[in-house]
Amino acid sequence: MNEYMQQLKELRKSKGITIIELAKKMGVSQSYILRLEQGKVEPTREQLKPIKAFIEGEF
User: Fold this and answer.
1) pTM above 0.90, yes or no
2) How far apart are CA 40 and CA 14, in angstroms?
3) Tens of pLDDT along the chain (59 residues)?
4) What distance in Å separates the CA atoms of residue 11 and residue 44, rounded to the nearest whole number?
5) Where are the domains of the chain?
């Protein structure tokens, strides 16, 4: 899962999207996004849907 979260971070940065903006779009806290990107927490099944959509460019 860490590789997927690293991809999230790299894509977010390449698109110029801040943690704050991504958190708002996902409906989660900024600290949660940060912990995801650091591999400190695992997303729930429901939280994977918007992450997947973002990575696949549907977001």
Assistant:
1) no
2) 22
3) 677 778 888 988 998 999 999 999 888 899 999 998 888 998 888 888 888 888 788 66
4) 20
5) 2-55
